[in-house]
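Collaborator request, handled under Task 6.
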Amino acid sequence: MRIFSLFDAQMRGEVLTGGTASQLRVGLQVRVVPEAAGLGSSGDYIFLPQGAMQSGIVTACAEWWACLCGTIKLTPVGGEPVLVSAGGVYALRQAERLHLAVLQDAVLIRAVLDPNAVGLMGAGVTSSYDAFAGGQAGRWQPDGLKRGAQDGVPRANAAFVSLAEGEPDWALRLRAGGLNWAACHAGTLCLQWHSPWPHVEPRVAYLQPGMVFAPDPDEAYRIDALHPVASLLCCLQAPARVAGAGGMQGPFLH
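Structure tokens returned to the collaborator:
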């Protein structure tokens, strides 16, 4: 299990000055999940002030932008403007050009995707999941990842999920969905994981907004909400990356 935080990113000096990835040059950008982590994508927190604008942003490779709060307007060249607010995800194709206008102070997570990573492809469409809506968590199911697939390979990159106190089985759901890494969006979450090595005690971490966890392959873990509703933004890969999910055993996978 690997844990990343905004504090660690700032200690590493990974406050971006602009011009990287999609060449976004406005706002404060902090690389929470570094490229060196080897997860097939990096993750940035981006703070955008109201009124910020930039024209002609070009994506060097596929990425997706997920809005944690606030509202931004994205206008693809030759396309209609799209409003993205809390719970919204916008996937960008490689070499796509667009204009950005920040309508309200906004916080984004940007995942810059490795084109060689299976399943991590920019879809060029907008999707959303209301992570704040109580009682909606059951709508997120692994088979929902297949929507939009054109060649039998799931192309979903991101999903917001809401976890209620006492709600079981989220570790299994996330693993079945091909979880690569997940960022705490709201609330506080208790993450417990178990090393495959014998005689090693279970470990616990408490996730708050701005923290990311990335489970290792075949690692048993459990995640629980410590608030009435907490939420995650999940970076997903093709479920084919997950081997033998149905036969996993572990003290936390129930």
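The cover message to the collaborator said: "Residues 9 and 32 are 5 Å apart (CA to CA). Helices lie at 6-11, 170-176. Please let us know whether this matches your experimental observations."
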